[in-house]
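Table S5 (text form). Sequence records supplied for joint modeling of the two-component complex.
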Amino acid sequence: MGIEKGKEERVFAESEWPRRLGGGGCMPRCDFRFWAGVLIGILLTLLYTEHRIANYVRVFDQLKHEKEEKGANNKPDLEQRPNFPDAQHLEDDMDDEHQIDFSGQKSKNEEPHLHEDHGLLHSHEQNNVTDVLFDRVQVLCWIMTHPTTKNIKKVTAVNETWTKRCNKVIYFNTYNNLSVETVELNFTEGRNYLWDKTKRVLVYLHKTYGTKYNWFFKADDDTFVVMENLRYLLSGHDPNEPHYIGCGFKLHKYFYNSGGAGYVLSRKALELFVTEALPKKECPQGAGGPEDFHLGKCLNSIGVNVTDTRDLTGKLRFLPLSAVSHFIDHLPSWLEKYLPYEYHHKAACCSNLVVTFHYITPDMMYLLEFFTYHLSIFGRPAPYTVQNIGTTDEIFERIRQSSIDFTNKD
Amino acid sequence: MAAGVSLPRAAPLLYIAIGVLIGLCISILTTSSGTYDTSFSLSRADRLAINSHDRHHDAHDDDSVDDSHAPVNALQFHGNDSGHHHEGEGAVADEVYKKVRVLCWILTGKQNHDKRAKHVKATWAKRCNKLIFMSSADDADLGAINLNISEGRDYLWAKTKTAFKIVHDKYLNEYDWFLKADDDTYVVMENLRFMLLAHSPDEPVHFGCKFKPFTKQGYMSGGAGYVLSRKALSKFISEGVNDPTKCSQDHGGAEDAEIGKCLEKIGVKAGDSRDAEGHHRFMPFVPEHHLLPGHVDPTFWFWQYIYYPFDQGPNCCSDYAISFHYVNSNLMYVLEYLIYHLKPFGIDRSLRVAEGQTLLDAAYKTARRNMGEDDAFKEGTKTQK
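The corresponding structure-token record, covering 795 residues in total, follows.
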């Protein structure tokens, strides 16, 4: 009897539902069970997908660019163009907790001492060919960065890896207490002032170092550079002629070099930019906008065009993406549109004598440093060098000829 | 009862079901655009720049090596030899190739022929003197043979024994060294030969990344790859494998620990594969794991296992590193590019060959000078020329 009674009560209670939360007409919305159910459902699904998301990554470029593509017409409009030349915004998304402190670490490998007793030469020990290049192709590297705590890691990483191989490196600009050279010019920090900053830096460099260095190389704090390969490329050009060298892009009718992939101005090009191009009306007068594109536009207006920096097999030497991206990720559609040359993604993308990669995090800087300058293959040393005999002039001439032979002939 | 409420008893479940559906829709909508799965470790560094929610997710076990975006076809590096070769530039490596003959057998399974084995063959394994994939299906093009043993971790030891037996019976006298690797191991074969050049294949010795447990002399991590001398393989098959007092007769068990215990019992020494400066040559994880200090928790099992001190950071790894583990197919191609193609102009690390010395003699002497501090047979049983 007790059971029957319970059943009765239950049936009776159920029939009460429509009236329980005020109003029979708003079912099921008004019933808290519904919302509890919805909540549980959402939580369950999110937990499950979160677990899967943890194994996924959003390729930032692709996401942003494909979204922008959806609305755009076929012609890539400047305003809808992805912000890829300036990686500053990426820094905002970088993982803050992943701190690595290399400042106290002194790598055994960094001390140049000949391991004569083991019979093996370590690559950081300069030999004659690399010495000749270092002395003859004088490159001042300037790094586009700004003082934030997140950027300290990046500045430290580039400072401990590739910028050691510049003839001179200046950071525009970073904290004064880091042991790097940094210069404060009178400009406002921020993405909307990058063009203004670039102009000021170039004016400063021309004024202060215009006669001291042959080449002025701009990189970001997330660009990895193989300086020997940069010098090799530059050895085939005359710094007293206007040269504007990097990863060439074409937009509308302008040719410019991608900012993030790094670009070089010869001494003459820098001089002409400051004295002739800057005052022209074609040279954008404002402070903001894509600094790399504006620089190209400005230089184009005085007849300075980008150099084709592909190697003789047609592969790129200045790479707008990271080493990994070029080999693995889908080819971003914007890249195809901007490259004025035929480009083969993945295995045929990148020259053996590559100069730069972009979007390189501090972690990857150290990895690339290891693979480029430390890890060696026993018995297969240097496929790319010249005979190390004769005077410095003779060696340099050999290098210069080799560099000219190595350029793309299209 | 009010009209319209038809299933009162089932209503809570119905609501939950509706809720789940709504939750699913919300989740799908917020994650649908632009998710790409590239969760192998080198891109992890990339991902940090690209808005990742994770860190330290490089694979530490076989199940988390991500194959889902493995290239459909093997990639070819065309035209990267641009005629800039120094005459005789590969001569030392070619001489050593002939002198130190290595048979590589790679443990795989038929489900991995396309996603892994194919890419292993297209990258580093083509540099073996002989390559065999020990698998669960035959494939003549790939060079895979069916071991006819059940799948799964519980049969790994059985597979290892069978594989070594096959290799011993068919090839013992044709090769000098016998390397076992996984289909997610990347090996720099020239550097393996360089290390082995200091030894004779008639020494009972084996090399790899040495772990402490289960043995007195240490055993070699299976995933980082380990290599047996001809003498070691001969002893393993004739004295070890069928003797229950020496080798476990089971099919299960950790194959690397089992072979380590067995080899110790039959008198095969465990060599020191570090170089003369104490840097490791066999790496049980991906490069990032070793090169970045603080990447690995101090409580990680690895620190309890490792036999010799193993630095994290720039001092971890030898310039003549031999192997990395947990490398998926995409990373294989990146490593192939970074190690075999990308070169800084002018940096020349040629072997110094003295007047009147042969290339092989110079290479041998250099290999001897670079032996690990604790290495076996350091006095040399006989000098090689």
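Note: The CA atoms of residues 38 and 69 of chain B lie 7 Å apart.
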